[in-house]
Amino acid sequence: MITLREARPPDAPAILAFMKTLLAEPDVYMLRTAGEFKYTLKQEEALLREFHSRTNSIFIVAEAAGQLVGLADLQGGRYDSDRHCAELSISVAKAWRGKGVGSQMIDYLLQWARKNAWLKRVYLFVAAPNEGAVSLYERFGFVKEGHMPRDYHRNGQYYDSYIMGLWIGD
């Protein structure tokens, strides 16, 4: 059974440990490596407080039997011109991929976004070879809005990315 809830500053140690493990995976499609992930406990706590204080942003955790198995967030724009947009970010622990955790988190965030007075558009960046993620986002109605060739470099290889978006406004 997966429990989804908003992340709070006391979750910071578990989130930091989760991210270090995730980023150490050799085949994960992430921009940073574990060595480049330098957030301190205080910085992570401050980030979670900031998410909680912003009306167009939310950071959630997915737990199973008290263990952190996924993270996801919507980070809304900071200015009047982009406050209606939020970037989606999601990560699922390797052992929990393909078990519906990502779907549950996306569903939770999109329901929250649709109730949010500010948000009208959700977008994300995804590595083109990550076909499972692309397919997941498409099932929720996201469409490819752009293609960025050789967008990032990891493990000696360049990867293309897609920008995907979903209009949730009227």
Name the average pLDDT: 94
- Rounded to the nearest angstrom, the distance between the terminal CA atoms is 34 Å
Quickly give the structural class: alpha+beta
The low-pLDDT segments are: none
Number of helices: 4
User: H/E series, N to C?
Assistant: EHHEEEHEHEE
Strand residue percentage: 35-45%
Order of strands in the sheet with most strands: 1-2-3-4-5-7-6
> Describe the biggest sheet?
7 strands, mixed
User: Total strand count, please?
Assistant: 7
Helical proportion, percent range: 25-40%
Categorize the overall geometry. globular
Radius of gyration: 16 Å
Account of the 3D structure:
The chain is α+β, with helices and mostly antiparallel strands. 29% of the residues lie in helices and 35% in strands. It is built from 4 helices and 7 strands, in the order βααβββαβαββ. It has helices at residues 12-24, 41-53, 101-115, 131-139; strands at 2-6, 58-64, 67-76, 85-92, 121-127, 143-154, 157-167. It has a 7-stranded mixed beta sheet with strand order 1-2-3-4-5-7-6, sandwiched between helices. The mean pLDDT is 94.
